[in-house]
Amino acid sequence: MKIFKFGGASVKDAKAVKNVATILKRYPGESIVVVVSAMGKTTNALEQLTNAFFYSSENAETILEGIKKYHFDIIEQLFPDRSHSIYNDINNTFVELDWAIEDDPTHGYDHEYDQIVSIGEIISTKIVSAYLNEEGISNKWQDARDFIQTDNTYREGKVDWELTQQLADKHLLPALSKTKGAVVVTQGFIGGTSENFTTTLGREGSDYTAAIIAYTMNAESVTIWKDVPGVLNADPKWFEKTQKLEQISYQDAIELAYYGATVIHPKTIKPLQNKKIPLFVKSFVHPADAGTVINEGQSPLPIPCFIFKMNQVLISISPKDFSFIVEENFSDIFKLFADSHIKINMMQNSAISFSLCIDNDRYKLPELIKTLQNHYRVLYNEQLELITIRYYDQATIDRVTINKKILLEVKSRYTVQLVVQND
Length: 423
Ligand code: ASP
Prior knowledge:
Blueprint: E1 2-6, H1 14-25, E2 32-36, H2 42-55, H3 60-78, H4 85-102, H5 109-117, H6 119-134, E3 139-142, H7 161-171, H8 173-177, E4 183-187, E5 190-192, E6 198-200, H9 206-217, E7 221-226, E8 247-249, H10 250-258, H11 269-275, E9 279-283, E10 292-295, E11 305-319, H12 327-339, E12 344-349, E13 354-359, H13 364-373, E14 376-390, H14 394-400, E15 404-411, E16 415-422
Parallel strand pairs: 1-2, 1-7, 2-4, 3-4, 7-9, 8-10
Antiparallel strand pairs: 5-6, 9-10, 11-13, 11-14, 12-13, 14-16, 15-16
Helix pairs in contact: 2-3, 2-5, 3-4, 4-6, 9-11
The site of aspartic acid has 12 residues, from loops.
C-alpha cells in the first residue's frame, strides 16, 4: 500500500484536481491512501474567517462568501451536471460553517479555530473523492477524525498513537484490504478528540498525517506530490540556481526540516524513520521523474543546503545585577518561551547573557518581552535574517554573507547558523 499526499497547490483549481486523477491513473491496481489538504490558500482564508468571527474584526460573512465562491467555481468546472450530489453535499458542509459563525464563540480561540479551519480539508476531500469516482477511480471518502485521535491541544493536537493504531485498524484497514487496488481519500491536517471535537496538527500538517497513516498501515512508501521537482538544496524564492537532491537520509531530512526547510513538515520524518518507510518527494507536473527519496541511506549530502529565515529578532537576555546567567535562569526563560508557544530558532550563551533568535511575531513578541523585562535586562534587534547552512564550508559562508554583518554565529560539525543584518 502506498500513501500519496496532495498539498494545497496540487488541488488549487479544477485543472489541478484533474491532474490528481491523471497521476492516480498511473498506478492501476495499487492500494493507495490519498491524503488531501485544503484547496490553494483556503486555510489562510479560513484563518481570516476565524479571526473575523472571534474578534469581530472584519465581516465574517463576506470572507465566507469568498471561500464558497472559490470552491463552487471549481466544482462547476469539474461537475458540469448541476444535479450531481456534490453540489448538495458541499452546500450542506458550508451550512454547518454558517451556523458555526452565527452565534458568539463559546470556546477559546484555538478550539474555535480548529472547528472552522478544518472545514477546508473536509470540503477539498469531498470534491476530490467525488471527482475521482466520476473519472472511474472508485474510492472511499474517509473522515480522518474517525481514526486520527489527538489530545485536546487545539491547533497542535498531540497524536494518541495507541488509540490511532486501533482506530485505523478498525476504520481504515478494512477499506484497503477488501479489494486489490482500493483507493481511500482522506483529509490531511486534522484529527479528533475523545469528546468528538476536531483538532488540527499544526500548519502544513498534512505531510504529518500521511506519515501517521503510513506508520499505522505499515505502508510501503509515502509520496508527497509538489510543485517542485523534489527537495532542492535551497528555496528557489531566495536562490537563482538550486540543485535537486536525489537522496537524503532520515537524519539529514529531520535536521533540514528542524532548521526550517519548508519542503517537509518537521514531524513527518520520525514515524517514517521508525518503520523504515521511504518518503518520496515528486513533482505533480512531471510525475514520471524520479524526484527525491528520503530513506535510510547514510551518505552526507553532496552539496551545501541553505535555509533562510527572514524577519528574525535577536534577543539578548541578562540578569539585571551583572550576575552570571545560570541553570535556574535558563529554565525560567525556556518556560516563558514554551508557555508563549514561541519557537527558538537559534541560541547561544555567555557568562552574563543569553541570546536567542526567533521569528518576529507581532502579537506574541511584545507580550513576551514585557514579561522577560520583569526579571531581566532585555535588548533586541529586529529585521534580521537567519541563514542555516548544512554541510557548509568557508567559501559558502563567505558567499552568502557578502554585504551582510554577522551578529551571531553558531557552528557544529555539519551545520552553521548565522544571524545577519544587511550592511
Ligand atoms: N491546509 C493546511 C495548511 O495550509 C495543512 C496543509 O496544507 O498541510 O496549513
